[in-house]
Amino acid sequence: MNREKVLELKELTHIYVNAAGAHLAVNHINLTVNKGEFISLVGPSGCGKTTILNMIAGLISPTYGELSVMGEAITSPSSRLGYMQQQDYLYPWRTILQNVKLGLEIRKEVTDDSDRKIIALLDELGLENAAHKYPHQLSGGMRQRVALARTLITDPDLLLLDEPFSALDLHIKMQLEELVQSTLDRLGKTAILVTHDLAEAVAISDRIVVLGRNPGHIRKIVTIPRELRAAGPIEARKHPEYQRCFDELWHELDEEMEKEGE
Ligand code: ADP
Ligand code: MG
Questions:
Q1: How far apart are CA 114 and CA 119, in angstroms?
Q2: Ligand 2 mean position to 195 CA, how many Å?
Q3: Separation of alpha carbons 26 and 52, rounded Å
Q4: Pocket perturbation via mutation, ligand 1, pick of 12, 16, 63, 83 by most ligand atoms within 8 A of CB
Q5: pLDDT of 236 above 60
Q6: What CA–CA distance (Å, rounded) separates 163 from 196?
Q7: Position 68 pLDDT exceeds 80
Q8: CB 165 within 8 Å of CB 144
Q9: What's the angle, vertex CA 84, arms to CA 83 and CA 86, rounded to 5?
Q10: What residue owns the CA closest to ligand 1's atom 27?
Q11: What is the DSSP string of 63-85?
């Protein structure tokens, strides 16, 4: 595997300060992500997953520690990053083409060739006839594919995915996992996925970062065997190693929950 570093988090720490006081949300997170890797973040609600993504995205600043993408310190939202959230945030009055183009408009990167590129990308994502439709004419799974297209059209080095599949039916969700993984692999993209679905994390990731809370910290990083990752998310679920990885994660989170109960 290519060992080029895409993301480096060193001692990353965030303290929220508001009228109620100071709250240590995440504490001393160390993580290096290499080019082409698919990383999942799992952990109980409130362990700091969104806080970590928001710091990587440059939306909030670390209180302490360092963060760099492709060797450059992140101090504000960067064009190297694409952020896809659970809600698709498509504008209902814009066509699919115009919604995807928004990704380029925000960055002032629209050219004469943009429409052609967008339509080619929509084709690749199985949205051949969607360009001139409106969001309400598409299913939930199709809308998430449009959101993915809007994230990919700017050619980011790193994709941040905050539970993008969680509102979808299982069958659609698995198809979308398959599409996301194969598309990112083909384009050589690096991704960080936040998910509460352990089965999904095992099926799609190279490594899984298990977080604990109070304050948010890394409990363990589970490396998924290559055979599983190579199989793709649907086939991976049938692989003999799959259950072992799932159990390892389950055990780790179970211990975290027990710790809370003390
Ligand atoms: P997760 O995404 O894993 O559920 P978050 O990153 O949203 O966790 O939150 C981590 C911790 O920080 C939680 O204890 C949460 O209550 C707290 N928190 C999140 N956002 C804020 C904020 N804007 N102000 C104060 N505390 C916050
Ligand atoms: Mg969250």
A1: 9
A2: 9
A3: 8
A4: 16
A5: yes
A6: 8
A7: yes
A8: yes
A9: 140
A10: 16
A11: SEEEEEETTEE--S--TTEEEE-
pLDDT of amino acid 88: 72
Rounded mean pLDDT, 224-229:
93
The model's confidence at residue 262, banded by pLDDT at 50, 70 and 90, is: low
The 3-state secondary structure of the chain reads: CCCCEEEEEEEEEEEEEECCEEEEEEEEEEEEEECCCEEEEECCCCCCHHHHHHHHCCCCCCCEEEEEECCEECCCCCCCEEEECCCCCCCCCCCHHHHHHHHHHHCCCCCCCHHHHHHHHHHHCCCCCCCCCCHHHCCHHHHHHHHHHHHHCCCCCEEEEECCCCCCCHHHHHHHHHHHHHHHHHHCCEEEEECCCHHHHHHHCCEEEEEECCCEEEEEEEECCHHHHHHCHHHHCCCHHHHHHHHHHHHHHHHHHHHHHC
Scan for tokens 């993915």, then name that residue: 148
Rounded mean pLDDT of 121-148? 93
SS3 209: strand
What per-residue confidence (pLDDT) applies to 87? 76
Nearest Cα to 86, choosing from 204, 173, 179, 207? 173
- Of 47, 196, 209, 214, which is best to mutate to test ligand 1, by the most ligand atoms within 8 angstroms of its C-beta? 47
